[in-house]
Every structure is written in structure tokens, then in C-alpha cells.
Amino acid sequence: MNPEASLADLTAEQLRKLAARLMGEVRHKQATIDKLTHENATLKRLKFAAGREHFNAEQRSLLEDTLDADMQAVQAELQQLSPQPPAPDKQSPKRKPLPPHLPRREFRHEPENTLCGCGCQMKRIGEDVSEKLDYQPGVFTVERHVRGKWACARCERLVQAPVAPHIIDKGVPTAGLLAQVLVAKYADHMPLYRQEGIYARSGVDLPRSTMAQWVGACGVQLQPLVDALKAEMLTHRVLHADETPVAMLDPGAGRTHRAYLWSYCTGQFEDSRIVVYDFADSRAGKHAMAFLGSWRGALVCDDYSGYKALLAQGVTEAGCLAHARRKFYDLWANNRSQIAEEALGYFGKLYDVEREVQSLDSVARQRIRQQSARPVAEALHTWLVLHRQKVPDGSATAKAIDYSLGRWLALVRYLDDGALPADNNWAENRIRPIALGRANWLFAGSLRAGKRAAAVMSLIQSAKLNDIDPWHYLRDVMERLPTQPAVRIAELLPHRWGPSVHS
């Protein structure tokens, strides 16, 4: 059907199809709005009931921050779906003036042309002044944006420079302050209640509830960039995967249960360095299947059963030599096992080859592995088979040997493919900053909060992988996102990013 054809030109059958399609879109959008509205109501109920739950003061503070951020994110998504913004629940509280002692930087915005269309020169009749709170690491300043008003005395026409678009419309924070809050929360693992106290010592009152709303809004605005990062990562043939447990709050039960943060990243030999995190409420393999979708490549992972369904659908398994070696290292460290020491000698020779080929291209890497590493691997396999016959079933040594023999094809797959690494240490190092921060963030307040954290951490850690300061990156990206065409959003991905002139 020609989309430019008028309705009068359409046949009855075409009109029926058009009506059915439009009704389907309306039903889908309304279902989404209803879902978000229900979620928003649930979040409000949880927020106002939080004080009655059996949490300590610190846990309750983190829960309230999470609920405020989730509620703001839901409101932002509803506004994107609805042509009319939802009516506010109550009158917005009057904003406190920014502290007068902070230094001010003034920005003047005037129309490019003050000559009226009638030919009369306009006169400046006043101005609007708005103040935004900015943050450079360690320093608060105030930006004064002065927008002059120009009027024509003859035809009473009024002209004023337009308000520049911002991530948070009509909000007080600049992109620099938003970047600081996000980096402190998701890179430095600094909860909002701690940030509130730190900023108060600088003479700035930033309630944690306000910052939580900023976090929720930024999560929604940054999501398209994270989606583009994931789409680009899935174009690569080799990926690493790993997962780590994270406590997620169950407000109704007044306790936490175990959720998981999954880490996916491009291979260590790739030029494009990308890591994308996915938060899920369990370790079930369905989450990995849903995330990777139709991707079919080589996945470097451990022996966790959650990946097995992917392998059955055509994903190639590449094993982790470090996991196999670790089994024998534990034996040697615990009781100085002679068998374990011999196994470690074989693994050491394999890793000697890896250090030699680390900086080579994939062709040269494969050639040297075949010449130097394959004979060692074959000798190790023979050694494993012989010693397995000598040790009793169920012993720790038998379990260590069985692990390597049971995964042998996956463990040595890297010998035939120069693009594959020998182990999954690359992915484990990507997940380590998250594991180290768990002691500070205690838990994820909700599934939505966990997914928002995963999205922001994907951008922050990908920036770090590409030797980019995450604060500079997020500040520049959030300044440019409101006017960046959707078709060019890939220009803002960390591995392609180039700072704008003023960054």
C-alpha cells in the first residue's frame, strides 16, 4: 500500500487492513501505558510503606532512593508514550534558590537577528534568568543563563533565544552534575545518601530524593545508547560471558533474595572494546538466551549449565583454561598434591605460549599455538587419562581431572582459532569492579533499578575499557543526546566517541 495514498483512494479491503493495524498499535500502546501506570502505583505504595517494613535505617534509605528513581523512570516512559504528559499527583514543591556563595558563570543568549519582519529594529525590553547547578570534580559553580527579550515597538513582536534542550527539561542540574552523580553511584559505588552528605559539606543541599529522580530520568534517556552498544557488540563473532550474584530487595518480604548481574563483552583480541551488563532476577539460562537472541558465534564461558541451551542452538562453546587450572591449583595450595603440581606444570607451558602470542595477529597466533601449544595439550590429555585410572572416584583429584576431561573439546578449541582466547579472564576482570562494589551498594532495590544500574555501568565500564574518563564521557554525551539524531547515535558509543569542542 502506498503510504501517501489518500483514504479516498483505498479499497474497502485496504481500509480494513489499515484499521486493524492502527487498532493493534493503539492496543499495544495502551497496554504498555496500563502496565507502566500499574507499576507506578505499586512503586508509590512501596515507597509510602517502606517505613513500616523491617529494614534498618541504611537499608530503608537505599530502598527509598531506588523507589524515587524507579518512579521518575516510569513517569519519563509514560511521557514518551502519551502525547499529553500525565497530570502531577500534587503541586510541585517550590525549588530552593541555589546558594548565593557559589561562584557564577554567566551565559548570555540573544536572538541571531533582532530586525523585525516588518523592518523595524527591535528593542531589548527585559530578560529571563534561569540558574543551573554545575559540578566539576570537587567544585560546585552556578551557570546563569540570561535570555534577552527583544520586542518590536511597531508590531509588538517578541523574540527570544530558545532554551537549549537538556537531559532533564527545566531541571536545575547541568550535564556535569548529572555525570558526577551517576559516576559516583555506579563507578565509585557511592549511595545517594552518602553523596548527599558529601555535597552538604560543600554548602549545597541536594536531597537524595531529588538525585534519585535525576538518576531515574537519566536511565531512561541513556537507554537508547545502551541498546545501540548492545546491538554493535552482537555483531562480533567472539564474545565472553560471566555472571556474579547481587542481592535484590524483596520489599514485601522485608529481605533480599539472590539476583544476578551478567557480563557480556567483546573478545580480548578485538579492537572495539565493549562490555554490556544485563541484570536478571535469577541465574537461569533463559536470561542468557533472551539477551543474545539470534547471535551465533563463539562464546567464551565457564561450565555453568545456564549456557548449555545456547550451545544446543548453534552457539560454539569456548572453554576457560584458567578454570581447569584453578581446580589443580586449589589441590596444590591445600595439601601440596604432587599430581596437582605436575598438572600445573603442563598448564604453565600452555600459558607460556599465550604470553608469546598475545600481541600477534590471529593468523600468527594460530600458527604458533599449533606448533608449540598443541603438543603440550595432547601430552596433558594423555596424562589426565592415565592418572584418572589411578585415583579413587569422588576424590578431589578425580573431580579436578574429570572437569578437564569432560570439557576437553571446549578447552582446546582456542588452539584452532587465533581469534579465541585461552580463558575467560577478560570477562572476569570486567565483572570484578562490580563484585568489589557490592559491599557499598548492599543490594539492588528492584528489578528496574538493577537493569538501570546495568545500563549505566555498561557505558561507564566501556568508557574505561577505551581509556576514557567516564565523567568526561557522560557529561559530553548527555549534553549532545537531546539533539543527536537517532540514526547517528552510534557516534556517541564509547569506542567511537570523540569529545565535543567544549568538553
TrEMBL record:
It holds the Pfam family DDE_Tnp_IS66. Residues 36-106 form the Transposase TnpC homeodomain domain. Residues 170-451 form the Transposase IS66 central domain. Residues 458-495 form the Transposase IS66 C-terminal domain. Residues 80-108 are annotated as: Disordered. Residues 115-156 form the Transposase IS66 zinc-finger binding domain. InterPro entries: IS66_C, Transposase-related, Transposase_IS66_central, Transposase_TnpC_homeodom, Znf_dom_IS66. It comes from the Bacteria. This is Transposase.
